[in-house]
Amino acid sequence: MKRIITLVLFIELLGTSFFMAQFRTRNRMDNLEGFDKQQYSWGFYLVANQFDYKIVLDPKYGMSDDGLNNLISSKPSMSFGAGLIGKMRLNDSFDLRFEPGLQFVQRDLTFNTQKNSQYSGGTLRNKPFDPLILSDTDKVRVVKSTYIDMPLLLEYHGDRWYNSRPFFAAGVNYLVNLQSNQTSTNDNLQKIFRSTTHNFGWTVEMGFQFYFHRFKFTPAVRGTFFTNNELVKDNPNTPPYWASGISSAQSRAFMLVLKFE
To answer: Which of 129, 135, 212, 230 is 20 to 30 A from 44, alpha carbon to alpha carbon?
Structure first.
């Protein structure tokens, strides 16, 4: 959360500095005056992202017996991405944007689920199993993902003030995880965490558009939230130390996006 607040403050500081610079300039000129009148325009963007899982735990295998402590946790890390911009002008206030890109992601899942050994005799949900003594490597899964992110966004922008204007956008995403391991026959017993390949979500974004002599620069803050459960359960003969402790896992991401058009 501190990183997200820092990103928002950075965007606000950049916008304020740009506005003040224009205000102090007596003979201001409007850059790229006809740029936004084009029916179609193109560009690219760079992203600093932070993906995390929103996890709903199984009350039996994912939480302590008293129900007060979570046994499974997710730790995000900062990563990066890049993509292309295709924009279609609808009218003076709205644009339709398609921004396909690649998002490189890493998350660490920690499974403090040794207490599940007490169910080795078998339950209604799990067959009997041979209990394991979980080592440090058994408790941690480094989940690496490469998402082909394909958001379709409707953008609303305010009136242009000299060489800048604010905007807000929202839309839907289709995301393909190239490292999902969904079809793998191995699972967490072989240290492979499996998730879904095809995913869906929604996105909101806000920021400022700045006009320079040769290009338009747009810093923005974006949030993307998956709507489907990405978890692929472990095989039936795998002890309930890992995926059995999770009811659902949905990605959520916060990003700093820098666009060039």
So the answer is: 230
Q: Distance between CA 126 and CA 236 in Å, rounded?
A: 8
Enumerate residues 6+ apart whose C-beta is below 8 A from 19.
Answer: 161, 164
State pLDDT tens for residues 196-225: 999 999 999 999 999 888 889 999 999 999
Please state the pTM of the whole predicted model.
0.85
Q: What is the pLDDT of residues 155-176, one digit of tens each?
A: 999 888 888 899 999 999 999 9
**What whole-number distance in Å separates Cα of residue 215 and Cα of residue 43?**
9
* Tokens representing residue 169 in the block: 């956008």
Given a contact cutoff of 8 angstroms between Cβ atoms, the answer to whether 203 and 255 are in contact is no
Tell me how far apart the 2 most distant CA atoms of the chain are, in Å.
82
Helix (H) or strand (E) holding 40: strand 40-57
7: helix, strand or coil? helix
Amino acid at 9: L
Q: Which two tokens stand for residue 113?
A: 């689920």
Residue 90 confidence (pLDDT) above 70 = yes
Measure the CA–CA gap between 251 and 26, rounded to whole angstroms: 48
Closest CA to 154 of 208, 99, 86, 96: 96
- Whether 127 and 237 have beta carbons less than 8 Å apart is answered as yes
Amino acid type, 136: D
